[in-house]
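Sat 14:20. Reprocessing the chain from the morning session after the first attempt stalled halfway. Input below, unchanged.
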Amino acid sequence: MSLPEYPLGSAVASQSDVSRSALPGYSRTSTTVWDVAPAEQEHHFYLTDKKTGAKWLTLTVLSRAKSADDAPVFYQGGNIAGSVALELPKEVLVDEVTLTLYGRISIFSHSTSNFFYMSDILYSAAERSPDAPTTSFSKRGKLKGQYNWPFSLKLPKGVSILSAITPDSRAERANYRLPPSFMDAQSNVHVQYTLIVRINRGGFKAGSKLSVPLTYIPLARPSAPTIIRQLAYQEEHPLVGPDGDPDGWKALTPVVVPGVLFKTIPVEARCSIHVSKPLSYTRGGLIHLLCSIACDNTQLLDLLTPQSLRMTLVQRITFGDAVQKARFSERLATQVTMKSFERASASWWRTPAADRVGRPTKVFAGELLVPEDLVPACHILHYGHEYELNFYGWSVVGFTPNAGLKIPLLSEPVGVVTAFAQAPRPRSYIPPEYRN
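Finished this time. C-alpha cells:
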C-alpha cells in the first residue's frame, strides 16, 4: 500500500506485545491513579424562611468541581460527602430528615425513567427502642436549635435493573454502568443526577424539599499506544506510518470508488484508510488518519485537495430495545429508532507518497480533534449512543461518484472515553495552514 513511512529519528523496534483487538481498546481498573481534582470544593445550598429570609436548612457538598458556582462534580466510584444542618429558632415537629440520590433519564421531554436510587435517613423521630416490640414507636420529635448530620454516599460503578419477565414468570435483570450526566438538545435526551434533602413534618403538614443537580463523570481511559508512537509524542518526532509501526494503525477495508469525470470519462479510484490505534479516544484528544487514493487517471488525482476529503465522527443514538425476548407484555412490539449526528470532522493535508512502482497515488494525512464536551458512549434502559468514523470520499468539481456523497464509503466503530492513557499525551502534527 502506498503510504508514507515517517522517519522517527532513532532506531526503535516495533512493539511486539501490543493487543491487536480492535474495540474497545480501553481500560478500567480500580487500582489506576486517575488524574482528577481532589474533592475539596465546597458547595452550599439553602432553604430560607419565606417571611424573614433566614437560612434554616444548609446542605453542604464536597465535590471535584473547579468552582463553587459550578454544579457539584463526581467521578466513578467516588463518595458524595457533606452535611445537612438545621437552624431552628422555634420548636418544629419533624418526623424524618432524609437524603436521596436519584438518577433519571428523560427522552423527548415526555418519557422519564429512574434508573438509580440511593437513600439515607439522617434523622428519625420514630427510632425503635432495642427491647421494645417491633410495633412500638416513640412520638414525633420536636426539634429546636442547631443540628448537623454528616453524610457519605458511595457511588457504585453500575446498577442492576429489572428488564423482563419470562413466560415462566422469572424476573430477568440487566446490568448497566452508570451513564454520564448530559443534556443533548439535538437528540432531546437528558440524563441527570439529583441530590434531594427532605424534611418530613408528619401528619397533614407539608414537608420541605431541597433539590440539587449533580454532574457525574464515568472514568475510562484508552490502553497505551505503541512504544514507537509514545516515543514520537515524547521526543516530538514525526509519526511512523503503518509500514514501520504496523501495530499502531488499523487498516480499514479498501474501497473502490467508480465515477464519471467531466461527465464523459469513466474512472475508478481505490481508496485506503488507516486509523491510529487503539480505537478508543479521549475527549480533547486526537485521531490520526492516513488516506491513500490510487487512480490510473492522473486528472482526477490532480483535482484532489485536502479540502475535498470528508471524514466525520458520528454519534449514533438508539431509542428502544433491539434484543428480541419476552418483555413485560408481548403486546408491546419492540421498536427501535436510530438517529445520527455529526460531532466533528477531520482536517487533512498533503503528504509525499512513498517511492514505489505501481498506480499513480495521492496520499493525505489527517487529524480529527475529539470535542472536549463529547459525551462518552453509554447504554441505559432503552437508550444508548455510540460513535463511529465515517468516510464519505471526496467532492471535487468535475467528478461525480456513482454512489453519491451521502452514504459513507467506510465506517469504523470507535470509543470515546474521559481520561488519557497512562502514556505521553497525543500531539498534533497538522501544519498551521490546514487547521480548521
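The radius of gyration is 29 Å.
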